[in-house]
Design brief:
The protein is an all-beta fold. The chain folds into four domains: 7-162, Galactose-binding domain-like (Jelly Rolls), CATH 2.60.120.260; 165-340, no CATH class; 343-425, no CATH class; 429-502, Carboxypeptidase-like, regulatory domain (Immunoglobulin-like, Sandwich). The strands form eight sheets. It has a 16-stranded mixed sheet that branches. A hairpin with a 2-residue loop joins strand 48 (473-481) and strand 49 (484-494). The protein is elongated.
Length: 514
């Protein structure tokens, strides 16, 4: 079992006042070997007046431009802390000329106990002047209080490091990793203590990237929440990569052709700026499954570039997310709901997506390349435009053949292709049965414009009109035969689904055939 910090670099372990491994020192009161999150101890301070700081001074300037700084903090000043918006708990960093401060928490948001804090030094400071995040010479924590606190230890810090998240590889003694396994590693001070993944109220919370590389992982009936923290938009997410064809990643379980026991992966707050990405576009994945799973408010979703029955999305939903790039993943009976812009991207005519619903998206499906595509059971509801064609070139063309109840209708051309470069073939069948052989049948709009005409019907008693549905059309049908009375079928509508109408013609008593 291998779980480690991803792009991990330790600044200070807080196991001693001077961390010889990283040549950092601080002015902590002492070490606490009874209360810590990583290693064997934490550092503690007595910060009992507003503006007092806990300080770390590296021997050489640190380049913190690539990854955020992380640390565990515990504060017992309680109600004396100022509110978060007033900088009750702050992180500061200096480059020798500029000192910037970022507001982290306060009495209105900090609920006590150990909490893992994450600071992206590239984010605009809340106070002071922006330091160069590639040349940090000192850093630490500062408290702002509404009144003086007791002269006792009240601030603990542990495991100061920078990096992007957690790296999970291999498997768990032959079994898949679970989120509980990762949490167990997190909660083992001797080998964990990164603070990337926490658990509260039965839900998992993540601050950073969970990267699965040549790993075997499965989660069922779990909720994973990416927290709202002041970090860059590309920090939070899940990545699944594979270089040797051994990776297996699965959310939920498969029962026959259905996805069950699914997971929910989401942001904490739909209004938060850092969303999360779901990056699994690797072409070497052995097994991949999203079964009965919901991704809510993902910024980017890239599914595997693999055509295999072991690479699937079944009965899952992508809600208020960015464009879902399905590549060659088999996607069945799934929903794409209220996308931020585009619901789905289909780039190759050999895609494998059927019986899905695209609901209330600005753009339903985005086709960036020319070609002929079959829309099999793809149902569009409430989209501003069902289809976008973005290919370039005056000869670029897109043909969509609807099948099995699919109903693509509206489209937009955003590339340099001609405005009429999109053809949607959506054949709907209106069928008459029991028509006397040799009958003359005419379909006409209510304004009497002819739609379809059969001069003499066949012996099977069936007349079938095939049309390309774009919108409902009111119409009527007339049927004439020398041996039967004229027959009128009025107040009909050509709609988006097949229809069958039985006919019962009456013989004409006045007809004579000498």
């Amino acid at each position: 079992m291998t779980i480690a910090g991803y792009n991990y670099t330790r600044i200070h372990s807080c196991d001693d006042l001077v961390d010889t491994d990283t040549a950092c020192s601080n002015d902590a009161t002492s070490n606490d070997t009874g209360d810590f999150k990583e290693g064997i101890a934490s550092c503690y301070w007595t910060l009992n007046a507003t503006g007092e700081q806990a300080t770390f001074e590296p021997a050489a300037a640190l380049d913190l431009s690539a990854s955020p700084v992380r640390f565990w903090g515990l504060f017992s000043q309680g109600g004396l802390l100022e509110n978060a918006s007033d900088g009750g708990i702050q992180f500061w960093a200096a480059d020798g000329a500029n000192t910037g401060k970022w507001y982290l928490d306060g009495k209105d948001t900090y609920s006590g106990g150990w909490k893992n804090f994450v600071i992206d030094l590239g984010q605009t400071v809340d106070e002071g002047s922006q330091p160069s995040d590639s040349a940090i010479t000192s850093l630490g924590v500062e408290v702002h209080l509404s009144a003086g606190a007791k002269n006792v230890p009240n601030t603990w810090i542990d495991h100061l490091w920078y990096g992007d998240g957690l790296l999970v590889s291999s498997d768990n003694a032959g079994s898949p990793y679970t989120l509980a396994d990762i949490m167990a590693a997190e909660n083992t001070p001797a080998t964990g203590g990164w603070g990337v993944l926490t658990r509260f109220g039965g839900q998992y919370y993540c601050i950073g990237e969970l990267r699965f590389a040549e790993a075997n992982f499965q989660a069922k009936s779990s909720v994973l929440v990416f927290e709202d923290r002041p970090v860059s938009t590309d920090l939070m997410g899940i990545t699944v990569v594979d270089s040797d064809g051994t990776s297996e990643f699965q959310l939920g379980a498969r029962s026959g052709d259905a996805g069950i026991e699914g997971c929910v992966v989401r942001v904490a707050d739909p209004a938060q700026t850092p969303k999360f990405f779901f990056e699994a576009g690797d072409s070497d994945l052995t097994r991949f499954g999203l079964y009965g799973t919901t991704l809510f408010d993902a910024e980017v979703v890239n599914l595997p570039d693999v055509n295999s029955t072991d690479v699937q999305v079944l009965n899952s939903s992508f809600e208020t997310s960015g464009e879902v790039v399905i590549n060659f993943t088999e996607v069945l009976n799934s929903n794409f709901i209220s996308a931020n812009s585009r619901g789905v991207r289909i780039s190759d005519s050999d895609f494998n997506m059927e019986d899905c619903r695209i609901i209330s998206c600005p753009i339903g499906i985005h086709y960036p390349n020319s070609g002929s595509y079959t829309a099999d059971g793809l149902i569009f509801t409430g989209c501003s435009d069902d289809v976008e064609f973005s290919a370039n070139g005056s000869d670029a063309a897109l043909v969509i053949n609807a099948a099995d109840g699919a109903n693509p209708n509206t489209y937009i051309v955003t590339g340099t292709a001609d405005s009429d470069s999109v053809t949607i073939n959506n054949p709907i069948f209106h069928t008459l049965t029991g028509v006397a052989e040799g009958s003359e049948v005419t379909y006409a709009r209510t304004n009497e414009t002819e739609l379809y005409h059969v001069e003499s019907s066949s012996t099977d008693g069936q007349v079938q009109y095939s049309y390309n549905y774009t919108s409902d059309i009111p119409f009527y049908i007339t049927i004439y035969h020398l041996g039967y009375e004229p027959y009128l079928i009025d107040n009909q509508t050509l709609g988006s689904v097949d229809a069958t109408v039985p006919v019962q013609q009456s013989t004409d008593p006045n007809y004579s055939n000498p």
